[in-house]
From TrEMBL:
SUPFAM superfamilies: LuxS/MPP-like metallohydrolase, N-terminal nucleophile aminohydrolases (Ntn hydrolases)
InterPro entries: Metalloenz_LuxS/M16, Ntn_hydrolases_N, Peptidase_M16, Proteasome_sua/b
Gene3D superfamilies per UniProt: Glutamine Phosphoribosylpyrophosphate, subunit 1, domain 1 (3.60.20.10)
UniProt entry keywords in alphabetical sequence: Metal-binding
Listed GO biological process terms: peptide catabolic process; proteolysis involved in protein catabolic process
Name of protein: Polyamine N-acetyltransferase 1
Species the sequence originates in: Pisum sativum (Garden pea)
Organism taxonomic ancestry: Eukaryota, Viridiplantae, Streptophyta, Embryophyta, Tracheophyta
Keyword Metal-binding: yes
Length: 137
């Protein structure tokens, strides 16, 4: 993703956050979130804004020789996702005898992230990830 495209995405997220600040429904949701127990994952989850992106870090993690993951957000979540992706790619290669295709890894990450949003006892991953792949041709 180019620097220009990244900045457009950050501005879009910040714009959505600014719009949410005017929404009664969003504010009621924030109030409900604030009233939950502090140790509950729902209490900590919110939308991003310009400030959250300034405190986040972007890393490029190698998964295999041909696969990588560009991650922006909470470093601990990025490292956890990378470790799980490496394990999944290794199991795929062992089971099928060839390198995991980029689209299969991207779908696995998307499915895993979706599960984290569906269960109250699981904190959603605070990371945006892009799967990168190349071949030797």
């Amino acid at each position: 993703m180019s620097v220009d495209a990244t900045m457009r995405e950050i501005k879009a997220v910040d714009s959505e956050n600014q719009k949410n600040l005017l929404s009664d429904e969003w504010r009621m949701n924030q109030l409900q979130k604030h009233l939950t127990a502090e140790d509950h994952p729902y209490h900590k989850f919110s939308t991003g804004n310009w400030d959250t992106f300034e405190t986040s870090v972007t890393y490029l993690f190698p998964i295999t020789k041909y696969l990588g993951l560009l991650a922006t957000g909470m470093t601990v979540d990025a490292r956890t996702l990378v470790q799980q992706a490496r394990n999944e790619v290794s199991e795929f290669c062992h089971k099928y005898g060839y390198e995991m295709p980029v689209d299969v890894l991207a779908k696995w990450i998307a499915d895993k992230s979706q599960v984290y949003t569906q269960h109250a006892y699981m904190r959603p991953l605070e990371v945006v990830a892009m799967v990168l792949g190349s071949d030797d041709k």
